[in-house]
Every structure is written in C-alpha cells, then in structure tokens.
Design brief:
By secondary structure, the protein is an alpha/beta fold. Helix content is about 40%, strand content about 15%.
C-alpha cells in the first residue's frame, strides 16, 4: 500500500468523518491519502496538519460529478492540488443544489412506500452539502426495511430507469467542468473509466490535453483493462493514479482503506505536477 488517492467521508456519501479517515490511514500505515468527496472541498488545512502529526500525507481534493455530452453517461473527475478554488466551489454549489432538489423528491417518494421520519434521514445527511440516496438508504436500514445498502431495495427505489423514487440530478458538461479545473490550477484525473464506460471519452480528453491523468488502479477497472489504460497514459503522457474509492460501510464492495493504491513512483509524479501548478 502507498497512495490511496480516492476516498470519501461523511462530507459526502461516506461513513467516516475526515479526521477518522486520516487516523485510519495512520493505523493502516498508508503513507498518502487523498480526501475526494463528491462535489465538495472537504480536505482542510487542519486535516493536512493532523496527517503530518501522524505521519500521513493528506491530499485535499474533490470528485466532480459531470456528464459526457456524447453519450449522456456520467463521468467523474478527480481534482488534486487546487490553487484557486472559487470556480470549483461555485460549480460544486450548483451540483449540490441540483442534488438536494432531487434528494428531496426521492425522499418524498420513498416515504410513500416505506414510512420513515425525515429526522432519521437528516441525521445521516447533516455533515454533507446535499441529500444523497445513500442517506435515505441508511435511514431505511436503521428502520429495519433492509440490512444492505445496495441490495434489492436500493434497486427498487433508485434504479435510474424504473426506480419507484428515482429523480435525476443535473450534472455539468465534463468538458466545461475541465475548463474550470484548469483555471483553478488543479490536476484533473478521469476517475474509474470502466465505471461508466468512459473509454472513448478518455481517448478524446487525452488527445485534446483536457486531462492530466487517468485512474488506473480502482476496484471497478477490470484487470484486463489495465494494460490498455497504461498504454493510453504512456502515449499521451498522462499521470496514472489509483484508489480504493473508499466509502466505509456505504459501498457496494466493502473494501478497507488502502485496498487499491497508486505505487510510490506514480504518487511522486502526481506530487510534482501539483507543485508545478502552484
């Protein structure tokens, strides 16, 4: 284990506080950990200082939710080393506003089928900038309707095609979002290309110079894809990163922190790129 560069906390849809994540990294002897909550900048200077005191390098970041305009599919972009956060903060606020609106609709629809007090959901959402499906699911678990986050009940309610409670979130165009990332001085990495079948998007963004890297080591990237991802990165001079996509108990995979990491040599290249952007 070396650099786990993709981690979530209670600041979005994870299950541990940011401080707990840093302490967990120290306990598991992971030298580098990045906090990349969905659409919110939650890696604070205090967390960096905490990491230093525990022997862990904490990298503040964000995972931006965007859409590939060519396919309509989601495309997630990890951003590290942000120097000028104003544009990204505004973009995050817009995404979270849409997520909150969709979340309110999904909660109201869920309550028609599975009565739960709003307060039970708010208890799980109180640290996040918007209401996620996972917060509703956690309340449903607390109420005894299910014992798993991503089982039959999740599909019944939140399947994007015929879920009883599903409401779509409006995400920004990936290319427009990357322009804002460039203005911020951040380093942009296309996350888990296999998750949303973003292979053509990767080729396009790599050729145009829109992105700086690609997430190679990730639980949703099949092992047979790794040689191809490495080849694309080599051809276009892209950074290669990796991470567990850690969510704690709010995950489909149940993987401990540090299950997927970037090797030290690739962390050093990312670090150099972040320092170059300053």
């Amino acid at each position: 284990m070396f650099a786990d560069l993709h981690c979530h906390t209670l600041r979005s849809d994870g299950s541990v506080m940011p401080e707990e994540l840093v302490r967990l990294a120290a306990a598991r002897k992971i030298p580098v950990v990045a906090i990349t909550d969905h659409d919110t900048l939650s890696g604070t200077p205090q967390l960096v200082e905490l990491g230093e005191s525990l022997g862990v390098t904490v990298v503040p970041g964000v995972e931006l939710s965007t859409t590939d305009p060519a396919t309509g599919r989601k495309a997630h972009i990890l951003v590290y080393g942000i120097q000028n956060p104003q544009g990204i903060e505004q973009l995050c606020e817009e995404i979270c506003r849409s997520r909150q609106e969709a979340g309110e609709i999904m909660l109201e629809k869920t309550q028609r089928h599975y009565p739960i007090p709003r307060e039970m959901v708010e208890r799980h959402a109180k640290n996040a900038p918007a209401l996620f499906k996972q917060h509703i699911m956690q309340a449903l678990m607390d109420a005894g309707y299910t014992d798993t986050m991503y089982g039959p009940l999740f599909r019944e309610l939140f399947d994007s095609k015929n879920g009883l409670a599903y409401s779509a979130v409006s995400y920004p165009n990936a290319h427009e979002a990357l322009k804002i990332v460039r203005q911020s001085g951040g380093v942009a990495v296309l996350a888990h290309p296999a998750e949303y079948k973003s292979y053509d998007l990767l080729r396009q963004m790599a050729a145009s110079g829109e992105i700086d890297g690609v997430e190679v080591w990730h639980p949703r990237n099949p092992p047979e894809d790794l040689p191809w991802l490495m080849e694309v990165a080599s051809q276009h001079g892209l950074l290669m990163t990796g991470g567990t996509d850690f969510h704690g108990c709010k995950t489909k995979r149940g993987l401990p922190l540090g299950s997927y990491t970037a090797p030290e040599e690739h962390w050093k290249k990312l670090k150099a790129q972040m320092e170059k952007s300053r």
